[in-house]
Specification:
Layout (H helix, E strand, L loop, with lengths): L9 H23 L7 E6 L15 H12 L3 E6 L2 H9 L9 E5 L3 H4 L2 E17 L19 E3 L8 H4 L12 H10 L2 E6 L5 H8 L2 H5 L7 E6 L16 E6 L5 H6 L4 E6 H4 L10 E4 L2 H11 L3 E6 H10 L8 E17 L5 H17 L1 H18 L2 E3 L7 E8 L4 E11 L3 E6 L16 E5 L11 E3 L4 E3 L1
Parallel strand pairs: 1-2, 1-3, 5-11, 6-9, 9-10
Antiparallel strand pairs: 3-12, 4-11, 4-12, 6-8, 7-8, 13-16, 13-19, 14-15, 14-18, 16-17, 17-18
Helix pairs in contact: 2-13, 2-14, 7-11
Amino acid sequence: MKNLSTRSNPMIMIGLIVAMILLIGAIVISATRPASSDKVVHLAAGEWAPYVGESLPDNGVAAAIVELVFKQMGYQTQLQFMPWTLVQNRAEQSQTNRQIRGIFPYIHSQQREGQFYFSDGIIDITYGVFYHVSNTPEAKLITQHQDLKQFSIITLQGYKYAQEIQQYLPQFTCDQKDTMQGLEALEQNLTSVIISFNDFSDELVAVVLSGPQTGQLGGNNDKLFKLSINPAQLSDKLTWTGTQNIVVYGLGTRFNSTDFSNKIDEYQLIMTSQTAQLLDLKHVKHSCITDDEASALVNLAYLSKPKVMIEAIQVAENILSSSLPELAPYIQRSSYSKPVPHRMMFPKNNPNNLGLRDQFNLRLNELRSNQQAYDKLVRTTVNKIQLSTAVSLVATSGNTLVNAGVFDQQMQTCQFDPPVFFPNGSKASVRQWSSVFLRAKQDGSRPYVLARILNGPLAGSPNLYCFAPEAIKLQ
C-alpha cells in the first residue's frame, strides 16, 4: 500500500488546512457566544439597600457574594428585580432551569421550608430595635429580646423574624408595606381601633383579652371602650350604603363620634373580612383586615402598646438618611441587636435545584472559610455603595483641614473637645442632615451634619462625626 503522506498528496494538505481553519473558527465563535441556557442561573430579589438593589454598585453586598459563588460554579447570573410581594410567589411557581432558580436574602423559617431548599448563610445581617424618641422613649431601655414583650412590633409585609422575636407577635399581624412606611408609622403613632357592624359579646371579649395568646403577647389591661356611630356621621373616607350603625372599639383612650369621623386618618382601623366587604376603603390610609373577631381583639390589645420596629440596622439607617432625612433625628435605636444569617432559597418545584443548592453550599463554604477574602469582598462592595452617595468635606475659613467633633450616641450631643481634623476633600456618608438643609422648621435643634468617614486613617470607624453645614459639598 502506498504511503499517503501530505508531501505526495496535495489534496490532503489542502483538506487539513481547511479543517484547521474551520476548527479555529469554531473555537472563536464558541468563545464569543453567550453561555448556554444551562450555564445561566436566573435569580430574583427586591430592593433592600445596601444588601440588594438594582441601582446599587454590584447590585448590593449580598448580590456580590452570590454572583461570585455562582461564577466559581461556572454560572452566569441573571438577577431580575421585582416587588418583594412577588419575588417568593414567582419563585414558588418556577419549575424549569429557564425560570427563577434562587431568591435572596431570606431568613430560614419552617413555613418556607415546605416550598424551598435553603442554602447556608450567605451573609449575617444585624437587626436593631428602632423607636421614636417622643412617642416611645421607654424603648431606649430595651437590652434583650425579653423586653420586647412590653411593646408592639411594627411588622412588614413578607418579613419573617427570628424565633426569639416571633414569639412576641400575634399569629396574624397588621403589616406595613415596607421599611419606609414602618418608620413613618413610628412617627404617626396611630391609635388602633376595631370597626364592626356587630356588637362583640361580653364573653368573647373576656375570653380573648384575658386569654393565653393575649397574655403571651404582653396583654393590655386598659379598659375596652365602645362607640356607636350613625353612618350619616361618617367621614367621606369611610362610607357604606347601609343604615346600620358602625361599632368602634378602642383600648385606653376615649373618643367621640365627631373626633373619630373627622380624624379617621389618625387611626389604624382593624376589621374582619366580613366588615371590610361592606365598606368602601379606597380612601382609607391605614386598615388591617383579620379573619375573625377574636383575631381583631388580639391585634387591638397588641397594637395598643408602645410601638417599636425591628429592621436590619444598615437598611433602616440608609432609608432614614436618604429618604426620610427630616425624621432621622427622632428615630433612635436601642442597644439591643441581633445578627441573623440570611440565605438563598431554591424552589423545590424544580427537581434540579437540590443539586444546585448543594453545589452552591460547597462553593459558598469555600469562600467563607477564607475569612480574609470574604471580608474584603464585603468591605469593597460596601465602600462602593457608600462612595456612590458620598459627600465631600470642605475646609472653611481659609483652613487646610476640616474641623469636626465626635457624636456622643448616649448623650446625643457633639463633643468638640478635643477637636478632630480631616484632610480637605475627604469622603463621608451622611447619617443625619442639619436643619439648614431640610424643609423642617429652622429651630436650630440640628445645627450639625452627622456622618461617617469613608477614606483616610479613620475610614471604617464606627463613630459618627459632627460637621458644620458649610463643610459639606455634594458630589
